[in-house]
Amino acid sequence: MRTNPHILEINTRAWLARLEAKHGRRFMLQEIPDEYWETFRKRGFDAIWLMGVWKQSPKAKEIARSVPEIAEQIRRVKPDFDVNDIIASPYAIYAYEPADDLGGEKGLRALRAKLNGMGIALFLDFVPNHMAIDSPTVNSAPDLYITTGEYEPNNHKDWFFKNENGRYIAHGRDPYFAPWTDTAQLNYFNPETKKFMLQNLLHIADFCDGVRCDMAMLVLNKVHRDTWWEFIGGNLPKEEFWSQALEAVHKQYPDFKFIAEVYWGLEWEIQEMGFDYTYDKVLYDRLRFSNPEDIKGHLRAEHLFQMRSIRFTSNHDEEESLTAFGREKSLAASTIIATLPGARMIYLFQLMGRKTRLPIQYVKDDFEEDTAIRNYYDQLLKIASHPAFHGGQWALTDIMPINEEDGSFRNILAWTWKQMNMAVSVFINYSDQPVKGRIKLKMNTPGAKVLHEEFSGREVSVTAEALRDGLEIALQPFESKIFSYTL
Fold first, then answer.
1. Residue segments in the chain with a per-residue pLDDT below the cut of 70
2. In the chain, how many domains are there?
3. Less CB within 10 Å around the terminal CB: N or C of the chain?
4. Helices 281-289 & 292-299 angle (0-180, nearest 10)
């Protein structure tokens, strides 16, 4: 993969349902027409994360179909939905085996070979914190899970369920939310659990080029203890699971990539354990709720941290970006993340212009694609594939005011990528008002000085005076301009 790769997240079953509706037939993974993969390749995607390819949990599907909140969320968009179109959560893992109805092991291996032949890496899910409530080991090896044995817990009884043998097993949970009732919580203070999950991880690594690790911070020793101390005690293991696991996987698969979904300020700690990229949810929140000055503050973080962050404005967990940000702001935010250091993650339904998020357990979303949104992303991704964005040096660019009375320049986000004798400068008005500012560009080539604006394709001549005093730039609300030029 390139430095600062572009990663496409696809909700596998929901996308396949759309393809079935379009083509009038079901597709296994290996049968998806090459034209779709070729389109993703031309858009400049280095990797595709297929979310939800593992064997489905029958019990998790049953639970999903009985949850009123899931039905209500779907009903707001699809009043006449069919309950049979609700499936198990992809994050209640029954077993790390490719689902038969998606083509099984043969189909997944064939798809990976096809993608790799196109220069595209394949990423899959690894859910370290829990398994499905009916996963076979819940009954055959209950001590892999947090359990009180045959005795009902004295506290938090609603956190537990009985397995088939009468053992009380905890549901998986995040300490800030109610338990996920379709899951069983693994016990990482049991060495056998670590062995079991490492075996699963090595098995997954044989199918793909990298994994996105769901809620990776939940299995850190201190987080695991603080979440479950009443049932596992407070003595921390000497080693972290991730340190052991990444070392073991890299011994067999040296180029294997790890992405961590991680929050709570634990990103750097996870990076230091060897993860290639960690979620930058702080940037997402600042893009959504904060002002440009706060965003600039975040982008002044240590460069290595930036390079190991994965940026996004949408994914299967977040509200669709068109709704969360608003149409114009969402495009400006996506232009930001597509031109920053680190991995750039785009959600397929985001590219297609979906306006309303539906539960990941619902697969029959027949929203109408937004052509204008798709075209914008096509152009943005083409621009963001410029070699400078993947091999150059990045730095924030200072913006100066036009005059003392006009403070609008503070709403301009700007940075420059330099590679050899080429540079690309990005300017984004991250506000709903017009802005103006001045920038100083270093252009040492003799003769006429020319900037190429990537979105419009226009050439802009630069005078010696403008180079000396600063080039004036004006942007409409949420407008972006990207200039490439010779240094």
1. 445-448
2. 2
3. C
4. 160
